[in-house]
User: Fold these one by one.
Assistant:
Number 1:
Amino acid sequence: MSEGPTGYQCAVLPWDEAERLRSVQRSGLLDSDPEPQFDRLASLARRLLKTPIALVSLIDAKRQYLMARQGLDVRETSRDVAFCAHAILDDDIFEVPDATGDPRFVGNPLVAGPPYIRYYAGKPLVDREGYRLGTLCVIDTVPRAPLTPPDRTTLTELAASVVDLIELRMVALTAESERQRTQRLMEMKDAFLATMAHELRTPLNAVTGFGHLLKMSGADTTLTAKQREYLNLIIDSGEYLTVLISETLEAEAIESGKSALRSEPVPLDAILASTVRLLRPLADKLGVTLTVTAPESLAVWGDPLRLRQVFINLASNAVKYNRKGGSVTLAARVQGDRVTVACADTGTGIAPGDIPNLFRAYHRVAENRDGIEGSGLGLRITRQLVQRMGGTLDVQSVVGEGSTFTVHLDRATMDAVAG
């Protein structure tokens, strides 16, 4: 304890002062706007303990900041003259019955001048880590007898309520900070994806476009077989990278809800027929039989474009991961108010341990990776689209026999389609 400039004694620094100050800063209460909850507790302390002044203080490095005050107009004082700076040196209530008879305070400006402190009792505000941030204190302008045991209990319990409020506020600040951080990361991700879409698609489109232009300009007659192979590799690689970029952007848009879907009655046979027509060349190339069976005049609720995308994704996987001479069947049937469309193949099947991971982003079945291009996003996108149209997607598979992916959707009437 050091001697003040006019004979009073300044409080020594707590042994954990550096850590304590960090905890005070983390509270976010220094120089904050007044909060009614703290004012109400200070008012309650003044009323219950029958003193003209009650304060909630925080002890900063050089000052005492009053975040709640009843009966006093100042917002802060120097730490050198603060009674609360003495109070935070211990966990127990710090009490001064008569400051004019106490050598530590007799010359203190707050005793010799306004607010003419004579009596002081302060209970330290101890946070969950054990740091004393400040006090809940009551002050009188006349000497008083020490607090009675019930009054000590009152001051202690009110101080605990102040600490609870501080902790709740810190939790709220942390949550808000985390929300802001998450928002910043989302904005950074959106900016990155937008940049990727522009900066990567533009040169890739140029590469594939000039590749096709070279082929149209007589590459088959002017280039050697090896050069034509290189050209085709450039075109294929560019188109594949474009697909990967598109699928990545689409998966993010669907997951974040930025991709709007319509909900209307859609004739199912037309969707399935167009899917088969599109994939027939691929199926013929790979030696896979592709068929569709669907009752006429059957409709489901959904987005026409996205429904087509769902069945193209499922059927193209079934064709690509099949075997020569295998088959793929798209079969629709009615089950009450629901319609199921099963995409069944005779491929190699999926191991039971891989099925739970099929719809994870970028996951590809180990046995099927070689020689087949893909981003590992197709099934994830497909399931998300089905779910957003009010449906479900499940899978059954037997290794060595094949797999069946089944889409369940709400049935619509053809009258609604016509309307």
Number 2:
Amino acid sequence: MTPTVGLTVARYACLMLPLAALAAAALPGSAALAALRPGAPMPDPARRRRLHGAGLLSFVAAATGIAALDAVAQGLGWWSYAPVDAAWRGLPVDLWLGWAVLWGPVPVLAHRVLRTPVALLLLLWLDLLAMPRLDPLVELGPHWWLGELAGIVAVALPAQLLGRWTARDLRLYPRALLQLTTFAGTVLWLIPTTAFTYGDGSWGHLWRLPSGVLPLLAQLAALVSVPALAAMREFAVRGHGTPYPWDPPKRLVITGPYAYLANPMQLSASLLLVVLAVGAASATLAVAAVAAVAFSVALAAPHERADLDGRFGHAWRAYRTQVRDWVPRLRPLPQPAATVWLDRDCGPCAAVTRWLLHRHPAHLVVAAAADHPQVLWRARYTGPDGHHARGAAAIARALEHTHLGWAYLGWLLLLPPVAWLAQQLTDAFITAPHPARPETAAHST
């Protein structure tokens, strides 16, 4: 077999064999695999759609992770490739896609017969078997097996956990975090790197910016990401779901950033691409940002609206008459009132009470903590949906009822690392936890 024929055969095999495995695993109800376990129940259509959506999500996670792994592997000399057409930064696209299919959707769709440890061991065995046989397409370095182990741990494992948890609606917060990692990697690394590779601009230009400019751009990127991060948190905490269309919130979310804007995640993602485009001097990436907005408006928005209208009906339509897609309100939209309970006998708490009342919070009752049925040791926020927040988080929630500027600060304070730090600083330097009714503290629960 000539080298050219060998390359062609290897490339076809790298793509077609994983696609054949995917087709078998994606049969209605995974019937081909369910046959290995007689008597196993077939998924209903809704569960099957969710399963296929989970498979797609795991594919995106695996594809982004493999691209990052390959950049590290080529840099460390773990492996390289023969020069071929249709390659992304040297990585043959058919190998990339087949690899992502194997590490992502195939085991996810077959999760009823392939437990996670078994699937990972099988993937590692397949790679260790196949990689040496892909010569001359793949040229292995002396320590290539380190790359395989790193890939299984850092790429295949997260992709499998994300897909399996999504398919079975398990571990909401960890899967939301994995989604965030996947989307961040795609938006902040894969898309810009592709734009720099096939257009203009570069990461090198970004790193060579004057010493004062790069930190400024990093801070700007962090600022514009806050609405998206807060929106993802709101989906998980109050909607019990994620932004992924096949794993949506179970409740209509109209709080947090959604009380001001309908598309906080899309707006943040587009602005992040613009910030990167400016820093990297890339007109191509700026065009990609415009294309992302066009995709959201022309393709994603109609599907999203139809889905939300079908699931939430009048409540969704009423909400959409009061918020816009891309331009935020200055004050939160009308909704049932929440309550924040503050200790008016505590100096700092009383000052916060006066400050809040002076700003005429919308749809928020500022009540005395002493009037709460329980003895409160910290400020308490209670939303109309039953959501609770305590301490600094309660004040952050109250800020959402003032106006856009203070609400933004509230979203920042609610992000987990910031929320923890804010509470520690509050306890240490402002006011320590104390009972709002000292005379009954001994009876508190």
Number 3:
Amino acid sequence: MKDRIDKIRRKFGEFPLTVKFLISSVLVIFFVLIVLNVLIYFDFKNFFIAVDRKGFEKRFKKSLLSATSYYVFRNNWNENMDFSPILNILSNEPNLIEVIIFSPEGKRLSVLYNKNLLKNEVKSEGLSKALSGEISYSIKKVFDVESFGDIKIPEGTEYVQEIYYPVVFGGEVKGVVEIYKDFTEIMDNIDSVRYRASVFSLFGFIIYVLLLYYIVRKIDEKERALKEKVVYYEKLSILGQFASKMAHEIGTPMHVIMGNIDLIQEVYDDDFIKKRCDNIARQINKIQNIIRNYLYVSKKPEPSYESVRLKDLVSDILSDMSFMVSENISLKADVDDVVVFTDKGFVEQILYNFIKNSADSIGENVGSIKVKSKVDGDFVTIYVIDNGKGVDGKLKDKIFDPFFSTKKTGKGTGLGLAVCKELVEVLGGDIFCESKNGETIFGIKIPLKGKDA
């Protein structure tokens, strides 16, 4: 038994705090409701009976003193007395069945209805108590009533109230009044109250459990979200430290490479070499921008605005990307020849990520990637459209979350689209994704004249 209790205690200790609170609260309330229902079941009957008894005694004493002659109390009761005043008083009692008047010796002297009762001499426990000066007050099933075979009990009666009331004067019992009343209606009311109390308690308990479960679930969801945020910011912190170290370590070699490129261009006056050197320089700038943008994941980026010709920007990106995508994939552009006042590096980084993801989606299959644009008022929308595998509708809300990736381990970090979203929001624009009818569209909508222009 002790081992079982220890096992339950250990198991309970493994639950989250919210689950412990839910279980403990439910058990406490359940125990309280059980206790309350037990009290209602047993004590409510006693309460009803006590109230009814108090009311009867008050009515009887008042009526007896006002309507019965004084000598009735002064003398011992016998066959020669007229008990009609007492009987008339008691005939007004609600649900009355019968009244029997006894002498101080326990002999039946008078009845209200059935005169045959006078022939019987029953010395009951209740009468014995009354003859000694104690009021006897009891509720019995109809078949347990001592005079069941003699009194006329109304049809449908299940419970009978039996009262033995001693009439005392000068410290002596002068006589006893026995009253039979139909108590069925009151007992039905008691049972009805018990039933309603149990039903309402059960209903209230269910509502309480459901409400408590809802609250605990919300708390649990917030707790999980908070834990996820803590893990997320821990990852960002590690990423920021790594990117900062990489920026420092790579910065010097990059400057050396850029210096050598400038030297080569000065020494060799050849268009082919110059074109390739320009290409290398652009890639180095992209590497620097990528490192800078990954630093921005843990710190809000600050854009460096300049006038950018969109057509030339997209042309350079597709030229650079042509060496990185499969020969089975065609790269096309259909963009407006507009000038955008924005951060060139941000837009390059975003479109680079979009095109790379499209190429990964197509894989080794034959496919196409097209970059389009549309000017609408003060904004320009840039689309990257591919005919790859597409994006599952269930994942659309998650693809821009940091560290979320559908690629295999080692193929992606889950930061590319998260960085894109961060950069677009800094530029004052929106990022979106649509996937339908065999086409997947990643796009951004940014101001033509900058965020604060």
Number 4:
Amino acid sequence: MVWFILLFAAVGIVFISSLLLLDRRVPLCYVRVHVGVMGLPAAVALAGLVFANHHVTVGLWRSDMLGWFMALFILALGWMIERFCLRYLYGDRVYRKYFTLLTFTVGIAALTWLSDDIRLLILFWGLPLLGLTKLTRLKKEWRPARMAAARMASAFSLSWLALFIAGLWLWNATGHWRLSFALSTESIRHLEWWEKTGMSMLLVLTAIVPAGQWPFQRWLLESAVTPTPVSAVMHAGLVNAGGLLLTRFAPLFNGDVSQMLLAVFASISVLVGTGISFVQVDYKRQLVASTMAQMGLMFIQCALGAYVAAVIHLVLHGMFKATLFLQSGSVVPRPNQTIRLSQSLSRTWRFTGAVVGFVAGGIVLLMSPEENAKWLSSLILGWTLAFVWERLVVFKDGRIIVLFGLVGAVFVSGTVHCGLMMLLHKAVPLSSNTSVAAEAIAVLMLAAGGLAGIWLSAHRSSELFARLYMQLVHMGEPRLESMESHPRYLADYLQKEVVNR
């Protein structure tokens, strides 16, 4: 009880502090104070993760390891992004509003996963998405920003409506507003198969829309017009919230058609997102296309019942991708910066990489016989290591150093993954309702896509390659009304300035 009070008090303090920023009488230097105060709820969430009782419910709220862990992740990531904004957004016309909306969006997103009431969950699902839309529309004088915000609003409304219907349906079928009661074994047992399938289909729709999954990826690709910190904060429990939603409602999924459809949509998203990221020349569009693909992998894990792996995936990807967005300015070429590259790739080197990937995938397959997504994990790890091994050839100098760095990165990644597995395995138990068909669909589609990519890369002069390349370019580009060769509002400002003089 005391930890909930402390967390609500800390979040309330930062909400009030963010509202003070809207008062022009408050000096601009107070923004730094506000960002410092933002660290308070993150510290409380850390203390709650360590010391709180993780098996109690208090009114509309539930204390468990997953809820506190996600609150810590979202609040800490939001605090770091706001610190970045201090200088990045300084001088912007709506500088103060950015911090107010960022605080609102992050704070509500953090509280979402501590709720144990269907009505509260529905409300909290929509509010952060509304905050993201408002953040995008702050540049309302710029037409691409308005178009992107309108696209977001329509997509997010569909997601919220689907969750609203699913929540009402679950309450009507079980008679409980409390989520833990509605999803208990006793309540689920009395549901008809078609009721569970219908609810799970609505939940799948709710989850994949904010994640920018195919065929709802357009809003995500057009979000590249948003400022870099807004793109980064999307990964603080917004685009990746679908994995958490499906984890919370895991008892409704029983290996039926909804999981197979989720595997199909997610696999298509992985292939399309990866393809777009390869052909795009705009760095931010490469990153958002990569997010589409990574969220597809997360949903494949959910479709296979590997919810612990999905949660770990969304957290690690969120931190990694938010960092890439914040460092996107570093990709601008620097003068006198050269890297010696080698273009030769021997068959022996390529064969060795394939063997390394095959052996690594086989080891994972043998060491995790009870894991829900063991075949998928083996395929992804093996293919990734083979690809990375192949890319090492471009480093003409220091190849051994890079290789040792890769081994160290694998060791650190494995250690972090095992630590998070130990932390979350009780809060997010492995689901027994696995779908063999869903895993077969995902593995076959991804394997076929990978093999097709290898064939196409070896036949770049073919008509099929050209058609596919141009189709991916087209899919990654925004609509014409969402583009401007030159921001017109800047020209309007200059014209007004001349008239005033």
